[in-house]
Amino acid sequence: MSDLQVDLIRSKRRRRTAQAYVSEGRLKIMVPFGLAPDEEARLVESLIARVSRKVSSTAVDLVQRTRDLALRYGLPAPATIEWSDRQTTRWGSCTPAEGSIRVSNRLASMPGWVLDSVLVHEMAHLEQPNHGPKFKALVGRYELSERAKGYLMAMSEGRTT
Fold this sequence. Notes:
CATH architecture of the largest domain: 2-Layer Sandwich
Strand order of the largest sheet: 1-3-2
Oligomer: single chain
């Protein structure tokens, strides 16, 4: 997001909510007028992080990346896969009956091998819905799965994104 300039707009009409959007290459953030400085700073920081994740997720071709991983590791490809900004406590989720996978857009700013690990994990659920031995064997095909698991644990512990 370093290429986007931020315009902070303090609105007297806004009472409780804040909004952020990109317009003409600039990030516009609208906040209620009269917020305490520390509250305003926290709100602006969280909105910048959220928009940054959305912008960076558009740079990743999630469908092609998933297809490539499915072929490479012998896993079923999902019928649908999409970024989700609603995944705040999980890195990904899968609905095997529908063949759908949702991936937190928080992963877009992380190293590619971490995203790949989550994709492999979710695709393994298309074949094995539970976390039993067969599932673990499927996930274990990805050589960096344990490393990625540790990375994500560390990110979850001190999460700022």
